[in-house]
């Protein structure tokens, strides 16, 4: 089974139905829901998604949406080692660095799925857009 880290932008594409990206985001989350792939997110992704979604909806609605995500994905741990690796990395985006090193430390993550591929240029894990990921799967 493929293990993938799903970046914040993909999650937000789905929640906000951001065209033309939401269809691919929905397909990826459907693959997680069906068990065809194992999707991972990080606590940072939950925090970012909550903050952004909360600007347009009630606390309870946002929490309910995030619970749906919770039931179809797993959450990577972020500890002191992950933060130190992120601080010492060559990543220009600290948030993406945190997510990358949480995936690296977990081991077994096959790809990061993001629309911000350039932010992960220092990653040792494959980095794919949602569309590229789906094209590779066939």
Please tell me about this protein's structure:
By secondary structure, the chain is of the alpha/beta class. Helices cover 55% and strands 14% of the residues. The protein has 7 helices and 5 strands; from the N terminus they run E-H-H-E-H-H-E-H-H-E-E-H. It has a 5-stranded parallel β-sheet, sandwiched between helices. The longest helix is centred in the middle third of the chain and has 14 residues. It is globular and about 35 Å long. The mean pLDDT is 96.
The CATH class assignment is: Alpha Beta
CATH superfamily membership: 5'-nuclease
Distance between the termini: 15 Å
- Any idea of the CATH topology? Rossmann fold
Q: How would you write the strand order of the largest sheet? A: 3-2-1-4-5
User: Strand content of the residues, in percent?
Assistant: 5-15%
Provide a count of the helices.
7
Q: Radius of gyration, rounded?
A: 14 Å
Tally of discrete structural domains = 1
The helix-and-strand class reads alpha/beta
The helix/strand order is: EHHEHHEHHEEH
Averaging pLDDT over every residue, what do you get?
Answer: 96
- What is the percent of helical residues? 55-70%
């Amino acid at each position: 089974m493929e293990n993938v880290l799903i970046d914040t932008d993909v999650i937000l594409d789905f929640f906000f139905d951001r065209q033309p990206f939401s269809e691919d985001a929905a397909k990826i989350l459907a693959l997680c829901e069906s068990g065809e792939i194992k999707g991972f997110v990080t606590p940072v992704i939950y925090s970012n998604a909550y903050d952004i979604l909360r600007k347009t909806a009630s606390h309870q609605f946002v929490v309910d949406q995030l619970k749906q995500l919770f039931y179809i994905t797993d959450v990577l741990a972020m500890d002191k080692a992950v933060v130190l690796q992120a601080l010492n990395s060559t990543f220009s985006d600290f948030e993406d660095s945190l997510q990358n090193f949480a995936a690296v430390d977990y081991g077994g993550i096959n790809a990061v799925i993001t629309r911000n591929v350039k932010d992960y240029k220092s990653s040792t894990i494959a980095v794919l857009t949602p569309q590229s990921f789906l094209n590779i799967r066939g």
